[in-house]
UniProtKB/TrEMBL annotation:
Cofactor annotation: Mn(2+); Mg(2+); K(+)
Protein name as catalogued: D-malate dehydrogenase [decarboxylating]
Metabolic or biological pathway: Carbohydrate acid metabolism; tartrate degradation; 2-hydroxy-3-oxosuccinate from L-tartrate: step 1/1; Carbohydrate acid metabolism; tartrate degradation; D-glycerate from L-tartrate: step 1/1; Carbohydrate acid metabolism; tartrate degradation; 2-hydroxy-3-oxosuccinate from meso-tartrate: step 1/1
Occurrences of domain Isopropylmalate dehydrogenase-like (ranges): 12-356
Family: Belongs to the isocitrate and isopropylmalate dehydrogenases family.
Organism of provenance: Ferruginivarius sediminum
InterPro entries cross-referenced by the UniProt entry: ICDH/IPMDH, IsoCit/isopropylmalate_DH_CS, IsoPropMal-DH-like_dom, TTC_DH
Matches recorded under PANTHER family: D-MALATE DEHYDROGENASE [DECARBOXYLATING]
Gene Ontology terms, MF aspect: D-malate dehydrogenase (decarboxylating) (NAD+) activity; magnesium ion binding; NAD binding; tartrate decarboxylase activity; tartrate dehydrogenase activity
Domain of life: Bacteria
Length: 365
């Protein structure tokens, strides 16, 4: 008789659904993860849910408790929905929760893949699957989002507001190194550095210099450097000439929305906020945001949350389960029936989730 040894690797996951459609898509994601765990075996997710976000703010005057970070610190990963509420200023909700976690846990590398999934058409003419396969690495700890700056003389005619973009050699080096390593793992081994050093002659020039220095350590990676405005036209006009991209916090924020739209919809796009050394927990979230206009209607696209869950599994070292999940998502999308309204269909979150569950279980939905 053959004895099959079952090792169970247990990961502690914090789920923070947050605001708007966050709860709907994270709920769907957890359901799919549970099915995957049951089907795949070998690993288990110990999920603790935290009801932080704008409703919490209305009750307690803050987005998460004062010891929020301490309560997340021993988790292996954070599965995050969205923040944003029509009644509370965006900078309050954002800095109170999502950026507090990104910065508090030094999640300096933000990874945003964009590719055409089966059945989904790009709004770009003549672009087939495989023609658009990008990963954008977003610097996630400083730059334009460093939080440096201030307002003085508020309300007076001489009022001043400043946001100072901060680039440190250490901060730029670590994200560049991460991007080169990631480019090395990709079939085309090509890295584009996005910059604006023609107009911004301090931080952005440091950015370019560090990129060039780092390129010397990676002779196997082909590189080029593109101004951010020109990058938008390359994305639209020559998508095949892009592979891995490294960009600042703000530039990558903007380019990744464009990347998501060009690959079908913001509703499918995933992201990972990584502390690559795994000294502190990393956070995984769909990039679409809280979608208040469609919240509660059951029509949010859960694909972004599923793809995000696959990135989380990859980070945890469960690459096989991550692959199985992406296969199921691709299978579920292929015939075009599991398209939510953002993809031009009329499927509900429930229907898409059921189709992915069926694909995971090898049955038809
Ligand atoms: C993103 C989002 C956020 C950002 C918003 C919610 C502030 O657009 O994750 O891309 O700009 O970082
Ligand atoms: Mg954005």
């Amino acid at each position: 008789m053959v004895q099959i040894e079952t090792t169970s690797r247990t990961y502690k996951i914090a789920a923070i659904p947050g605001d708007g459609i966050g709860a709907e898509v994270i709920g769907a994601g957890l359901e799919v993860l549970q099915a995957l765990q049951a089907r795949h075996g070998g690993f288990a997710l110990d999920v603790e849910e935290f009801e932080w976000g704008s409703d919490y703010y209305r009750r307690h005057g803050r987005m998460m408790p004062a010891d929020g970070l301490a309560r997340l610190a021993d988790k292996d990963a954070i599965y995050f929905g969205a923040v944003g509420d029509p009644e509370i200023p965006d900078h309050v909700t954002l800095w109170g929760l999502r950026l507090a976690i990104c910065q508090g846990f030094d999640q300096y590398a933000n990874v945003r893949p964009a590719r055409l999934l089966p059945g989904i058409e790009s709004p770009l003419r003549g672009v087939a699957r495989g023609d658009l396969d990008w990963v954008i690495v977003r610097e996630n700890s400083e730059g334009e989002y460093a939080g440096a700056g201030g307002r003085v003389h508020q309300g007076l005619p001489e009022e001043v507001g400043t946001d100072v973009a901060v680039f440190t050699r250490k901060g730029v080096e670590r994200v560049m190194r991460f991007a080169f390593e990631l480019a090395r793992s990709r079939p085309r081994k090509h890295l584009t550095c996005v910059t604006k050093s023609n107009a911004q002659r301090h931080g952005m020039v440091l950015w370019d210099e560090v990129f060039a220095e780092m390129a010397g350590n990676y002779p196997d990676i082909a590189t080029d450097k593109v101004l951010v405005d020109a990058m938008t036209t390359r994305m639209v006009g020559r998508p095949r000439d892009i592979d891995t991209v490294v960009a600042t916090n703000l530039h990558a924020d903007i380019l990744s929305d464009l990347a998501a739209a060009l690959s079908g919809s913001l509703g499918i796009a995933p992201t990972a906020n990584l502390n690559p050394e795994k000294r502190l927990p990393s956070m995984f979230e769909p990039i679409h945001g809280s979608g208040f206009d469609i919240a509660g209607k059951g029509i949010a696209n859960p694909v972004g949350a599923f793809w995000t869950a696959a990135m989380m599994l990859d980070h945890l070292g469960e690459g096989e389960a991550a692959g199985a999940l992406m296969n199921a998502v691709e299978l579920a999308l292929a015939d075009g029936e599991a398209f939510t309204p953002d993809l031009g269909g009329n499927a509900t979150t429930r229907q898409v989730t059921d189709k992915v569950l069926a694909a995971l279980n090898g049955t038809n939905a």
